[in-house]
Amino acid sequence: MKSASEGSFYLPTDAPDEVLATPATAGPWSATAQHGGPPSGLLTRALEALLEPGQTLSRISVDLLGPVPVGRLRVATSVERPGRTVALLSASLHDVAAGRPCAVARAWVVPAADDGPGKDVPLPHGPADGAPGDLPASWVRGYVDHVTWSWVSGAVLSPGAATVWMRPAVPLLPGEPLTGLPMLMTCVDSASGVSAALDPAEWSFMNTEITVHLLREPFGDWVCVDATSTLGPAATGIATATVHDEAGLVARTTQSLLVTRRRDRRPD
């Protein structure tokens, strides 16, 4: 794999609520459309900015309303349901050039506490136990070259379930360390590719959304995605994953997949 060539996924602009996506955000199917990871991380960063002291996010859902361009984006946020114990927040991305929304995230907020009944159980392996692995030659080398991959089992080139440790190689924005939930969300959208059930040279399996149920915020700068994809009889599929950090289980995720042959045109 190539080393990261861009210094961040996004660059600031002269407008405080706008960013410019770099080529590092490009997804595997097109150099002009972003992978779902960086927009999910950017939206989560915006959601966290709305939190009050003592609050945390418990569920984050991201809907991709269309291709997220490798271009200028505007970020907007709102509080849909205020509350002292639980609240519902939303954040959206707008394609500035096209004048349309392209992604929206909603998150439930709960009290942050460290005295709950659950206990962490570390995995029997860590990032150092995997190998870099290979990615499909047909994929655009944007996002995939700006993440460090350590494959424990399976591979994109071997269809089926797989387990990989991931770490973004660049931050969302210059000078901001990428950690916690924005880091996790930048990675976990990859579950559908990690567990590819079809040959990616012949098929595309784009996710239209991702839902992440969180147990806690991740520690450190690595997450392990243990993913499986299941295909339906139509142009549908579901990718599911359990997500760990080096201390234990952090989250469970699901993604709805749009499965089409590579020769088919991407729908509007």
UniProtKB/TrEMBL annotation:
<dbReference type="InterPro" id="IPR029069">
    <property type="entry name" value="HotDog_dom_sf"/>
</dbReference>
<dbReference type="InterPro" id="IPR049449">
    <property type="entry name" value="TesB_ACOT8-like_N"/>
</dbReference>
<dbReference type="InterPro" id="IPR042171">
    <property type="entry name" value="Acyl-CoA_hotdog"/>
</dbReference>
<feature type="domain" description="Acyl-CoA thioesterase-like N-terminal HotDog">
    <location>
        <begin position="26"/>
        <end position="109"/>
    </location>
</feature>
<dbReference type="Pfam" id="PF13622">
    <property type="entry name" value="4HBT_3"/>
</dbReference>
<feature type="region of interest" description="Disordered">
    <location>
        <begin position="1"/>
        <end position="22"/>
    </location>
</feature>
<dbReference type="Pfam" id="PF20789">
    <property type="entry name" value="4HBT_3C"/>
</dbReference>
<dbReference type="InterPro" id="IPR049450">
    <property type="entry name" value="ACOT8-like_C"/>
</dbReference>
<protein>
    <submittedName>
        <fullName>Thioesterase family protein</fullName>
    </submittedName>
</protein>
<feature type="domain" description="Acyl-CoA thioesterase-like C-terminal">
    <location>
        <begin position="128"/>
        <end position="259"/>
    </location>
</feature>
